[in-house]
Design brief:
The protein has a two-stranded antiparallel sheet with strand order 1-2. It has helices at about 1-65, 70-80, 85-90, 95-115, 120-135, 140-150, 155-180, 190-210, 220-230; strands at about 240, 245-250. The termini are far apart. The chain is built from 9 helices and 2 strands, in the order H-H-H-H-H-H-H-H-H-E-E. It has 2 domains: about 20-90, Arc Repressor Mutant, subunit A (Orthogonal Bundle), CATH 1.10.10.60; about 90-250, Tetracycline Repressor, domain 2. With about 250 residues, it is mainly alpha-helical. This is DNA-binding transcriptional regulator, AcrR family. GO terms for molecular function: DNA-binding transcription factor activity; transcription cis-regulatory region binding.
C-alpha cells in the first residue's frame, strides 16, 4: 500500500511539474508576443513620426520656393538622415509631394467640417464654410501652392490628389445646399451638384486672384459670396426672363 501511495505521489508530482512547465511555456510565449506587439507599435509610431518629419521638411521647401522644385537630398539634409533612409519611407519625390498635398487637404477639410458642424442653419454653415475656406486659402500652404501655381503642370497622380480634396469640399457644399432646400434657403429646382462645383470654383478662382494680386482677400469674403449666392449679380427687384421670354422669377431682398 505504501508503494502504491509513493508511486501515485510521484505520478502526481510529475503531472504537476509537467503542468507547471506547460504553463510557464505558455506564459513565456504570451509575454514574448506582448513584447513583440509593443515593439511593433513603437516601430509604427516611430515610422509615423519620421514620415511626418520628412513631410514637414518637404512642405517647408515647397512654401519657401513657391513650387515643388526641390531635391530629395535637400529633404534628407533637413531631416538629418541619409537619402537611403528617406527612400525607405517615400519611393520618389512625386510620392512625397502627393503625401504632403493630401495631408494639407485633410487638414483643410477637417477645419471646414468643424466650422460647418457649429452652424445652426444651412445658410450659416455655408457662410462659415466660405469664410474658413477663404481664410485658409490666404495662408501659405502646399495645397494653396498647388492650386495657384502647380495645378496645370501636375502629373496625373498629383492632380488626382488635389482634385480629390476639392471634390470633398464640393460634396460638403452640395450637402449644405440640399439642406438649404428643406430650410427654404435654396430653390427646389436648383441642381445642387452643379451649384456646388460653381461655388467651389469661385473660391479657387478667388484664391488664384488673391495670390496674383488681382484682388485682395478679406475676412468679409464669406459674406460677399453668400450675398452673391442669395441674390446673384442682377439688381434687386429685377424680373428675370428665360430665353422664351417668359418671366422666371424676381430677385428680391431677403
Amino acid at each position: 500500500m505504501g508503494l502504491v501511495n509513493e508511486k501515485t505521489a510521484a505520478e502526481i508530482a510529475d503531472g504537476v511539474r509537467a503542468a507547471k512547465s506547460v504553463a510557464q511555456s505558455a506564459l513565456g510565449e504570451q509575454m514574448e508576443r506582448r513584447k513583440q506587439r509593443i515593439k511593433s507599435v513603437s516601430k509604427t509610431r516611430k515610422s509615423r513620426a519620421t514620415r511626418e518629419r520628412i513631410m514637414t521638411a518637404a512642405s517647408e521647401l515647397m512654401v519657401e520656393r513657391g513650387n515643388t522644385d526641390f531635391q530629395m537630398s535637400e529633404v534628407s539634409a533637413r531631416c538629418h538622415m541619409s537619402k537611403g533612409a528617406l527612400y525607405y519611407y517615400f519611393s520618389d519625390k512625386d510620392e512625397l509631394v502627393e503625401a504632403v498635398l493630401e495631408a494639407s487637404g485633410d487638414e483643410l477639410v477637417s477645419a471646414i467640417e468643424e466650422a460647418v458642424s457649429q452652424a445652426a442653419s444651412a445658410s450659416e454653415a455655408l457662410e462659415s464654410l466660405f469664410s474658413e475656406l477663404s481664410r485658409r486659402m490666404r495662408t501659405r500652404s502646399p495645397l494653396v501652392l498647388a492650386l495657384t501655381v502647380e495645378l496645370s503642370s501636375m502629373g496625373g497622380e498629383l492632380f488626382s490628389a488635389v482634385s480629390g480634396q476639392l471634390s470633398r469640399i464640393v460634396r460638403i457644399i452640395g450637402e449644405l445646399l440640399e439642406r438649404g432646400k428643406g430650410e427654404g434657403f435654396v430653390r427646389q429646382n436648383v441642381d445642387t451638384s452643379l451649384a456646388a462645383v460653381y461655388l467651389c470654383g469661385g473660391l479657387v478662382g478667388t484664391t488664384v486672384a488673391s495670390a496674383s494680386g488681382v484682388m485682395q482677400g478679406s475676412d468679409a469674403l464669406g459674406s460677399s459670396l453668400m450675398e452673391l449666392l442669395a441674390h446673384g449679380v442682377a439688381p434687386l427687384g429685377l424680373r428675370l426672363r428665360r430665353d422664351d421670354g417668359q418671366a422666371e422669377g424676381v430677385v428680391t431682398q431677403g
